[in-house]
Fold D-cysteine desulfhydrase.
Amino acid sequence: MNLDALPRKMYTEGATPIEKAERLTRAFGGPDLYVKRDDQLGLTEGGNKTRKLEFLIADALTKGADTVITAGAIQSNHCRLTLSACVKEGLNCRLVLEENEAPQYDTYSTGNYLIYQLLDEHATEIVANGTDMEAALERAAEEERSRGRVPYIIPVGGSNAVGMTGYAACAAEIASQSEGLGVAFDYVVCASGSGGMQAGLVAGFASMDWRPDVLGMSVIKPENDQQALVHKLANETAAHLRIGAEISREQVRIFDECLAPGYALPSAAMKEAVKLTAQSEAILLDPVYSGKAMAGLYALIRDGFFREQDRVLFIHSGGTPALYAYAPFFHQQ
Ligand SMILES: Cc1ncc(COP(=O)(O)O)c(C=O)c1O
């Protein structure tokens, strides 16, 4: 896998740290837990989309675009970071945000929604829950074309082959850090939403001799549907990067216990995971992705899934601003 020839903008200085979670490891009595701090990636408040945007924004600029259009939920980390990259590059940005199905906590006053307003109060457009988001993106692009602009659409979550390249690059970064630390991880654990982070990691590791098992904690779809999605995306990434390896469905491992009661809906297990991680390692997770994924990891540890000597790397994919939008939930007893 050679990424050097691909257009790329660098938004982070160097590699994100890998920290040993000493107190958590001791609390559980093994496996050895490590955290990759992708919450410390560049752009406003960091998080996993920054890696995808390095390739997506470079692609938009290469294609002569002056306007980037993307979509997400009201509290979308992907939309926050896309807008942040656009501000930095002097590009116009349009965010199509899907209304929540039911009112939720402080969704419209704080967290990512507040950050959109601070970065550019004209960027957001809210559409009804259940809107066909692909069609909404196309409509927005058509409007921009009629104004003489050159739009570039980024799909929800930035999970196309160009964006997923960011996580294939992350696999290479982990391999190099693993060598430096002298720690060969047996497992890499991450949240699996639009699926691009997991797919990029699986494709990236498929290009190497060293291959930790990537465990995706599904936060949107049930296991089978998510596995089919990530399998397709991983093969798209492998083809895009000419990795020359077919990724089997078995290489895509999904766990969906942490998904309940549904996407972006908080659970007692998520709250426990967020508090335990904060109180043991002083690391803040988020309520929608990394908090649920960590709850899934803690459940696997408690179920005896790992051996005591296993080395497990959890990708902290960011999302912390959304924590503030869920403050009332954390105050509830
Ligand atoms: C903080 C955070 N973690 C994890 C994910 C999931 O990544 P992916 O959509 O690539 O599966 C997202 C997606 O929005 C996210 O914002």
Summary: The mean pLDDT is 96. Residues 18-47+160-331 form a domain with the Rossmann fold fold (CATH 3.40.50.1100). The chain has two domains: 18-47+160-331, 49-158.
